[in-house]
Design a protein that fits this description.
alpha+beta; binds iron/sulfur cluster; Alpha-Beta Plaits; two-stranded antiparallel ribbon; 4 strands; about 10% helix
Amino acid sequence: MNPFTDQPIPLIDPRSCNGCGLCMRACPTRALMLRDGKAVVTDPLACEYSGLCEAVCPTGAITRPFEIVIAEEETNATHE
Ligand code: SF4
């Protein structure tokens, strides 16, 4: 979760990351960097959740969590 906006950010499993840097190069907003040879979302505010990082990762180290929100039923609806 993005600590500044409460929006989700991609999850990166450091055990699966091989440090190839493809996600970094694919990110249009440069939200990812390599630290100690592992990909990290270093600029969570820049992340637009495009999914390009997830798509290019050759090891499946990146996943993007989604929250499913079920809308409340309208209370003013007329039922017959
Ligand atoms: S593309 Fe995947 S394996 Fe390569 S640096 Fe990014 S997270 Fe790691």
